């Protein structure tokens, strides 16, 4: 569904414009509703899910047994922080200030289409992540099977 990398500007009010290439998808496939939440695995990144896709993720995360601290942490970061946003007439969404601050997202950011969701990275975190290479010791069996 979503793929590609787009440099994004966040305005002084914390809004970002959905790139033109994704606007029809967001209106049609997402019923013009996205859910913004933390990426529990990477610093400097927020996740933006289409509402229907989000409901599946939310239900899986909430089904995790709450007796494990890692499960509770994931539930807090994903479900507890989830905010529904709808693009305005100019195709802009308002990112929650607390999430922008925690992820270090300021004026410049990078929006990545990752199939079933978007990732919104602070410019600095994205640059640092992109500059990291995947070493031989990092390659999993699943990655080794890819024919790239």
Would you mind describing this structure in some detail?
- The protein is of the alpha+beta class.
- The chain has one domain (2-144): Transcriptional regulator MraZ domain (Chemotaxis protein chec), CATH 3.40.1550.20.
- Helices cover 36% and strands 28% of the residues.
- The protein is built from six helices and eight strands; from the N terminus they run E-E-H-E-E-H-H-E-E-H-E-E-H-H.
- The strands form two sheets. The chain has a six-stranded antiparallel sheet with strand order 1-7-8-4-3-5, with helices on both faces. The chain has a two-stranded antiparallel ribbon with strand order 2-6.
- The longest helix is centred in the middle third of the chain and has 12 residues, at 51-62.
- The radius of gyration is 16 Å and the shape is globular.
- The model has no long low-confidence stretch (mean pLDDT 95).
Can you lay out the helices and strands and say which pair or pack?
Blueprint lengths: L1 E8 L5 E3 L2 H9 L5 E5 L6 E6 H12 L6 H12 L2 E3 L6 E3 L2 H7 L4 E8 L2 E5 H9 L9 H4 L4
Antiparallel strand pairs: 1-7, 2-6, 3-4, 3-5, 4-8, 7-8
Pfam families: MraZ (PF02381)
Subcellular location: Cytoplasm, Nucleoid
Keywords: Cytoplasm, DNA-binding, Repeat, Transcription, Transcription regulation
């Amino acid at each position: 569904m979503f793929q590609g990398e787009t440099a994004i500007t966040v305005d002084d009010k914390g809004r970002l414009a959905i790139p033109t290439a994704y606007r029809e998808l967001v209106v049609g496939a997402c019923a013009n509703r996205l859910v913004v939440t933390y990426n529990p695995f990477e610093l400097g990144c927020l996740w933006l899910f289409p509402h229907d896709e989000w409901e599946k993720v939310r239900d899986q995360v909430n089904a995790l047994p709450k007796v494990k601290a890692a499960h509770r942490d994931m539930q807090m970061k994903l479900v507890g922080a989830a905010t529904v946003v709808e693009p305005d007439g100019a195709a802009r969404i308002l990112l929650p200030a607390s999430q922008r601050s925690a992820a270090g997202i300021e004026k410049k950011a990078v929006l990545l289409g990752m199939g079933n969701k978007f990732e919104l990275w602070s410019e600095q975190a994205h640059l640092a992540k992109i500059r990291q290479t995947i070493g031989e010791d990092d390659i999993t069996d699943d990655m080794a099977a890819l024919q790239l």
